[in-house]
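Re: export button greyed out
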Amino acid sequence: MAEAASLKVSVWRGGADGGFARYEVPARANQTVLDVVTHIQREIDPSLAYRFACRVGMCGSCAMTVNGRARWTCRTHVRKVVDADGALELRPLANLPVIRDLAADLAPFFDKWQRAKGSFQPKDAPDGAVPEEFAVVPPGSKARREADAGIECIGCAVCYASCDVVAWNPDYLGPAAMNRAWTLVNDVRDGARAERLEAVAGDAGCHSCHSTQSCTERCPKNLDPSSAIAGLKRTLFWDTLLGRR
Amino acid sequence: MSDTSQARRARGQTHLWVVQRVTAMLLAVAVTVHLVTIIGAVRGGLSAGEILGRLQGHEGWLIFYVVFALAAGLHGAIGLRAIAAETIGLRGRAADITWLAAGLATAAFGIRAAIGLYA
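Workaround output, generated via the alternate export path:
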């Protein structure tokens, strides 16, 4: 593909009622979208607000909407997303309040982790004390494998920004919070299974998921929140039908 | 909203979802039987006499159509409830009761017809 000598970058400026500003950024080899944003801030307009930390795909803080799709900008090469004209459109993450420019407010996202009871509640030591013995959790057991499948989430909110159901229902917990809940439902050391299942049930929880799998498709860690939500539905289905809750 | 009323509502919503799933399973069987019956029945012409001959006094068919009508009524209403919530934001207790009533009313019409053909 012939590469343009410069990139025509539209960047969201201002709050929710802001608009696009256009910048011309020199195209370079092996350039990431985060490099482009950094270039704009350092060389063109120092007032540009955006968020990043590690630059290597560990922290998850640089997620933005790149050409209509939520991505980690540090792990997105420009040449993979730009067309032949060199046009790039950057917005803050969708489904979240905009603080300013490319920085979205992730507070609602993390509040929902709390609401989905995303913190470990030790069964053997309810007061938070360290248990006398180590818990034995066979690595090959079904529950352990289910928990392992979702445990690597770093909370970047790419799934949350990609979820249609969040857009339709602002109360909906979203994929990441329920993925976390599912890892804990499968944690045999955890003692809050019943409360957690209660917290993820209903219209604001797993029962509104349409299984369209944008979360799974776009998760930069290749996790599968959609299957985690299906697991919650399955568990709640049988628990409800058999009167176990 | 308090935690307990939130939990109670979530429980009700979960029950609606379970009803939706169970009726879907019933409909998968019932619709298949229904389609096969239609295809069989229309061969050689469809007449009131033939329909009554098949259904009148047959408890098996009566039970089948009562279950079918109930499943279809509830499944349709719960599905429309979800669509209305997501597209026009129609949510809440009053809406839920209305949808449930609409589903049961639809089912009642079907059940009345089934009883009419049986008797």
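The domain at 3-118 of chain B is CATH 1.20.1300.10 (3 helical TM bundles of succinate and fumarate reductases). The button fix ships in the next patch.
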